[in-house]
Model the fold of this input.
Amino acid sequence: MPDTRLRIAVREFSDFENALAEQIALYRDLHPAIEFEAVPLDLHALHSELFEKSGLRSGAWDVAHISTDWLAEAVDEGILEELTPWLHRIPVPDWPQGWSRSIVEPLYFDEKLYCLPWHDGPECLMYRRDLFEDPAEQASFRNRYGYELKPPVTWNQFTDVARFFTRPRQNLYGTMFAAFPDGHNTLYDFALQLWSRGGELYAPLDAPEAIAALDFYRDTIRDTELCYPDAEKLDSTRSGDVFLSGAVAMMVNWFGFAARCDRPGSPLRGKVSIAPIPSNPGNPSVSLSVFWTLGIGSGSKHKEQAYDFLHFLTQPELDKKMVRHGTVGVRLSTWRDPEAQQNTPVYSKIEEISLGARTLPRSRNLPAFAACVNDVVTTALTTKRPSAEILLDAQRRIAAKRITFR
Done:
């Protein structure tokens, strides 16, 4: 009989599940006395198990996937084991210099570490290189719009390109957004639209930049000549599946979905590339960094074994093995690996994108703010109320609840 069973709460996603299953199998080859129970949970169920049901504090879960936008809340509630003492006792090789600063810095709170990175995913513009580089498509676009067909730099160009490639009879659409109201996709999209127009999340939600961001977002999603239908029913993983099917010419999404396209057997292998996210003229391109970590529950009765497992996963060869599952390694050695870049060419650009990516506010108020943004987007996509009016109502709720980031 196994001496120890580690229960792991896993973010439900086939690529995550497959990558973690291989890592567990490799660990058990060396430690057969350790048994694992890895349970996939969707986003809401995962958050509920860890926070509302106090699964990490009670010891119901030994290890869990923790999104970086949950970290401040987790640290504030004391549900994660601090890893700094463990690192002093049993150092992780190359930590932290073996990882990008954009990955290391968000994990520390008052110089204390609570999680180790597991899957990275800066947002980027991913596009069908085979379509953009087709001479006939280039000539047709030039004749129609008067400039060259390239990955769009501005949101106006983004609209032109999306309209050009939308051909429902060919089951091809110019773009798509993951607008499923789960409190995550909507917040990420809104943040990118706002930042790329010079706005900030800590500013009043009814600021001019926010109104312009919401107008563009709702207008694009509602326009059947631009966007894949039913965006409000698609989260990021399902939208990634749609892109992988070849039905979309370009979209703003996580780097990992571009990497998936180059897996063996993919219909888009060798046909996808990435570029910076468009912005309004006068504003720099922005990206968003939200990634997945692994943390140990503060109530776990098997912390030593749990830390040994996390320590095992930080090895360079373990991190590199994730790539073949479509998940995204987090070590610089993986990003820079010639074989990884040859098999998945977009890896040659991840370091540049990750270094320039912004992060969401590190605050336990972020989930409450995300819920407000979620309501804003849902109202915008299901009613004809003016964006300014929707955002003003949301700002009043934010003020009433005293949701601040400063």
